[in-house]
From TrEMBL:
Protein's cellular compartments: Cell membrane
NCBIfam families, alphabetized: glycerol-3-phosphate 1-O-acyltransferase PlsY
Name this polypeptide is given: Glycerol-3-phosphate acyltransferase
Species for this entry: Mesoplasma lactucae ATCC 49193
Phylogenetic classification of the source organism: Bacteria, Bacillati, Mycoplasmatota, Mollicutes, Entomoplasmatales
Oligomer status and interactors: Probably interacts with PlsX.
Amino acid sequence: MHYLGIILASIIAYFIGSISWSTIIVKRVAGVDIRTVGSGNPGATNTVRVLGKGWGFLAALLDGLKTVVAGLVAVLFSLIPSYLFSETSYFIPALFALIGHCWPIYYKFKGGKAVSCFLGLIFISNIWYLLIFLVVWFIAAAISRRVSVASIAGAVTVGIVIWLPWLNGLNSFIWEWNGYQTWVDQAWNNAWTRFAWMNYLHMPIYENITSGHSGVKYGFASGMLEIQIVNIVGGLILLVRHKPNILRLWHHQEPETFPRLTPEERQKLWYLRLLKRPNHDERKELRRLKKIEKLEKKAARMNERYEAKSGKVNQKIEKLDNSKNNEKSKTETEVKITVKEEPSKKNRK
């Protein structure tokens, strides 16, 4: 059971990855299920279509952080001073967070396309992978005007680049599953090409290895080959999730995410932007009107609260009046009954 930490961290990571932030954000902001609007994909791109760039960026950021949080959970497990958690990797749980994003248990296993989670995965692997992916993504998006093409191109590029040892702080094509010696001798001391920045959370391992002590391991630093395999699997999942997009691209039916504008449309857009720009006086007037609107909204809210409170008070008063009337009616009926009973007794005598 040396891999108990990996198993527990992977289970937790899957449930973390199953949280669909795009679905939550669109539901809270617009009151709509994102799977029924736009492309139907619960991802950041569809969030941009529904709510705009700001909310789409927030959804992408939160989805990417899921893999980072999963890795940090695994790091916490690896710090437990027990042999059951001594070999806890943090890239495998991060991969399970990506799997949870694609097939979430909370949403009937219908999730996103893993782009944001893949960014988080390569971020915890190597910061250079992330930078290369973003550069390729922006170039491909500018040329093709399609997010799907940019994501596929970025994933394929990272899948090729990760096999270059010099990018990972090594000097040759030498890989080991958990090559501590290679890691310590080369990658650890190379500050600019650290192949896994999260390995630096495992300082006790480094101290035990370099000092030659055979004490208790406080954690497990993932090796370079493991990182490459996990990133390859994550990239393959991304490509599988983009299978409909690939088929549409093959048949030339994939719509442009950022459609090109004709020169006439650009001129019209430019003129409209110029017309919409208010001058200094207009800005002051707009600010004044906005303040008035805010005050009116506050006044309306206060009136609603006052009416609600007054309504509750009136209800309480009505209840008290009703209870008093009921008591009076009861006493009157009792008096009538006693009055009727007295003459009947006299007649009997």
